[in-house]
Structures are given as C-alpha cells and as structure tokens.
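User: Sequence in, structure out. Go.
Assistant: Echoing your sequence, followed by the structure tokens.
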Amino acid sequence: MNALIDFQAGRLAALIGRGDMLGMRMFMENMHIPLDVQDRLCNEMHTLSDPMRVASWLENNGHSMIPERLTY
C-alpha cells in the first residue's frame, strides 16, 4: 500500500471509531470516492475497525460498480 492509502485509511478508521458518519461522508467526498462505494463502506463499517482493514477494503472495493457512461 502507498502512503496516501495509509493516510486515508487511518483517517477513515478514526472517523469509524468515533461513529462520525457525516465526517466519513465528507472525507470520502473529498477523496472523490463514488457514492455507491461510499454506501458500501458505510454498510460494512462495523467490520472495519483498524486502519489496515480499511486500507485493504479501499484497495479491493474502491472502484465504482456503476459504469461511467450510462447507455440507453
């Protein structure tokens, strides 16, 4: 993992530990994490207690499942 992921994971783990949902959302928005990924993280936050787990989660699940271009 790189230093940026480590920093972001540490910050998110601290916010999760405090139960600061608004702070988490604002921080993830600042990280430009897509909303569907934010929702998944918020739903799974009870399993993410330490920064290493958060960092691993970000690396494995940090991409949106929604295609960038929606076609009709």
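User: And one key feature?
Assistant: Residues 3-18 form the longest helix (16 residues).
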